[in-house]
Each structure stands twice: as structure tokens, then as C-alpha cells.
Design goal:
The protein is α/β, with parallel strands linked by helices. 37% of the residues lie in helices and 16% in strands. It has a single domain, classed as Rossmann fold, CATH 3.40.50. The longest helix is centred in the middle third of the chain and has 17 residues, at 167-183. It is globular. It starts with a strand and ends with a helix.
Length: 305
């Protein structure tokens, strides 16, 4: 779920920013059942480890399931060891420690702990909020990552509302949104998510899939993650992020997006980041891996090589 709209562009929507995470178990080459990290009582995420080869850690977006990456896992598992995260409280994952208080920064620190505990230096691939978290990890813990792949995320999500947005200017509105989401009746929340998510993925079956993830998510975990995301601005930190990075951004012709203008928008948002490469995914909405899987896998293969 989540991101992007500037001027004539509708790349995604705010309500799908995503977070990511993993689990401190001794990672093995085989696939394992999802394991809560650091433990069930204090869970910030669960992680499933699949495949053999260099390590890749995959973070889904806001209120999204680890199943976001099912096709990606099938594509990559013969050549990579994949650490697929499900943030606590998103989709069907128990909320654990994300049932109260801040979500994004504590989850990020749990990812750092997981990486260090398992002596990893993975490529981190994040969609939407997960992409923002990949940026945050590269800034706060550059020793953790060999590369980041950002799938349709912005360094500051607030520009969806206003290209001149700042954290301070948006905070009152964001706090109100957080309260409304937590208090919203289930049927109203489902209707809101159906309207929003129908603009983020093309297939009606996939709309139903991601709406299901949203409505089965813990409401505090979702509302707090949205608040966290919209009060974190990574733009001032971009110049200091030296980690190699690839941005995979969609162009949705069905929404009237112009490829040249869309590319210029994304590049302008990341202009200060020194080691960034951008790759366009045509005829896709926000969930690139669902809308254009073959083009997405090809772009991801290039980013991982």
C-alpha cells in the first residue's frame, strides 16, 4: 500500500508505506517458517528465510504482507538467500511490540539487530514504507547493507500532499489522520482502503488481496506507522548516504502519467543522493511486482548483479 502523487502524477498513495524487518535466528539455507523477532512477546517483525546464495532482505510496505514478495521469492530463491519480513501488526502478523507506541524506528533498530546477530551484509529491498526504511537503514547503519533497492518510495512521503511540504507543516494534519484511522469503524475503514488501493494496483483480484491485508492489520500499527512515516524526512540525509542504491519507479500510462515528467519528478526528489541509479517500470501502478512482474524481476535482477 502507499505512495506518490505530485502535480499530474498519481504514482501510489500515502496509505502504503511500508516497513520491513527480520528475525534473529541462525539462518540456514533452507526455507523456514516465519519466526518472530526478537521473540513472540516483543515482536517487531517475523522473518522467513528461503534459498541459498548471497543474502537479500525484503521489506514490504504499510499494512502489507510478506506475501507481497511471493513471486519475487520464487524468482530469486535458486540464487539468493532471501530474508522476507512481515512487520508485526501488518496483514495477519500479530502486533507484538507494535501494538503500542512508535513502530518505524523501533522496527528499524530490530532489523539492525537481526542483521548483526546473523553476521549479514545483505542487499535490502524495500517497497513503499519498506523503501523508506531501507534509506533509513543505509543512513543510520551503513555497515549493515551492501546495497539498497527502493521500490516506489520517496525520501519524504509528505510531498504527496504538497511539493513544498515539511514535517512541521504537516504534523497537525498527520496527527488527525492517525486518530481517525485508529477510531474508524471496520466497514468505513474497508471502504476507504478499497478506494485508495484500487489506485495502487491494476487487477481487481490484487485489489482484493491488498485490501484484505489492510483490514486484517492491527489498527494502531498501521496508523502509527503512517504517522511515523509522514514525520520522517530523509531529504537532508541523502547526500550522506554513500551506499549504492537503485530506485525502481512506476509509470502508469492509464493514469495519464507522462514518462519524462514522472522520471524527472523521482530524480528531483533523490537529486542529492550520490550513488543512485533509477529504473523505470512501464504500465505499472504502485505495486510493481504485482502489476508488471516480469519487468520488475528483470529490473531487480539487474539491481542485484
Amino acid at each position: 500500500m502507499s505512495k506518490m502523487k505530485s502535480n499530474n502524477m498519481k504514482t501510489g498513495a500515502w496509505f502504503a508505506v511500508a516497513v520491513g524487518i527480520a528475525t534473529a535466528m541462525v539462518v540456514a539455507a533452507k526455507s523456514h517458517a516465519a519466526t518472530p523477532y526478537p521473540d513472540t512477546a516483543h515482536e517487531r517483525f517475523s522473518v522467513t528465510v528461503t534459498g541459498t546464495g548471497p543474502d537479500v532482505l525484503l521489506i514490504p510496505g504499510l499494512a502489507s504482507s510478506a506475501a507481497t514478495w511471493d513471486g519475487t521469492v520464487a524468482h530469486l530463491k535458486a540464487h539468493y538467500r532471501l530474508h522476507v519480513l512481515n512487520v508485526a501488526g501488518f496483514a495477519d502478523e500479530p502486533a507484538g511490540a507494535n501494538a503500542a507506541g512508535a513502530v518505524v524506528t523501533p522496527t528499524l533498530e530490530a532489523i539492525d539487530a537481526y542483521i548483526k546477530a546473523n553476521h549479514l551484509k545483505p542487499v535490502v529491498v524495500g517497497h513503499s514504507l519498506g523503501g523508506t526504511m531501507a534509506l533509513m537503514l543505509a543512513k543510520a547503519h551503513p555497515e549493515d547493507v551492501s546495497k539498497i533497492v527502493i521500490v516506489d518510495a520517496l525520501p519524504y512521503t509528505g510531498v504527496i500532499f504538497n511539493p513544498a511540504a515539511t514535517v512541521d507543516a504537516l504534523k497537525p494534519q498527520v496527527a488527525m489522520m492517525q486518530q481517525q484511522i485508529e477510531a474508524m469503524p471496520a466497514d468505513a475503514f474497508k471502504a476507504q482502503e478499497t478506494g485508495s488501493l484500487s489506485r495502487m494496483v491494476t487487477s481487481p483480484a490484487n485489489v482484493d488481496l491488498i485490501v484484505g491485508w489492510a483490514v486484517r492489520s492491527n489498527r494502531h500499527a498501521v496508523a502509527q506507522s503512517l504517522y511515523d512515516d509522514l514525520t520522517i524526512d530523509m531529504r537532508p540525509d541523502l547526500a550522506a548516504i554513500k551506499t549504492p542504491a537503485v530506485l525502481l519507479f512506476p509509470v502508469d500510462a492509464s493514469a495519464g502519467q507522462d514518462p519524462t515528467a514522472t522520471a524527472a519528478f523521482y530524480k528531483s526528489q533523490y537529486a542529492a543522493m550520490p550513488n543512485l541509479t533509477t529504473v523505470e517500470i512501464d504500465n505499472s501502478k504502485h505495486f510493481e511486482m504485482l502489476d508488471q512482474p516480469e519487468a520488475f524481476y528483470k529490473a531487480l535482477d539487474g539491481a542485484l548483479n
